[in-house]
Amino acid sequence: MKKIVSLSLSAVLLFSCQTKNRSSGSASKPDILASHIDSTVKPGDDFFLYANGGWIKHTPIPDAESSWGIGQLVQDEIYARLKKINEDAVKEKTTAGSVTQKIGDFWKSGMDSAAVEAAKLSPLKTDFDAIDAISTTEQLITTGAALQIKGINCFFGNNVGQDDKNSDIMAFILSQGGIGLPNRDYYFNTDERTIK
Description:
By secondary structure, the protein is of the alpha+beta class. It has helices at residues 2-24, 47-58, 70-91, 99-111, 113-119, 125-132, 137-149, and strands spanning 156-162, 170-176, 185-189, 194-195. Strands 1-2-3-4 form a 4-stranded antiparallel beta sheet, with no helix packed on it. Helix 3 crosses helix 4 (99-111). The longest helix is centred in the first third of the chain and has 23 residues, at 2-24. It is extended and about 70 Å long. The two termini are 47 Å apart.
């Protein structure tokens, strides 16, 4: 009985969704991946060219790029959106200390290349002085911690990302710091509190 009821409900929902789509008069969007298929190639002979041949034929690699793909188009769109957010924040009149004001000030400071060139390394003087003043292990740890807070991975890197062995789990990832040594990631499973 439960199977009959669930099948009936599924059929009703499916029918109502189709009826709603038809009544709205909206045409479905073409499948972007299907538009890249090259039907002149048999999928059994070369599936890659079959699936991507249309894209390869109609999308040349731009002269300024070494490679090109849909991922790059997505990244370019993200960059364009971020640029607009920043430029709009510069133009917008907001209260002091607001997120929009901070975004605008940060963008404007980076875009003022003349001021950046004139300042040279002086904005980093405080950090350089703290590094030069290190003479004990305690000062090394304190300075390293202060740099970590600023996002400078001087001893180790860290981030949160999907666990390599179980993509359902987000893990805290530590990576080796330093110069020229191979990177070794340590995964801390946030559910089980174990190191992998």
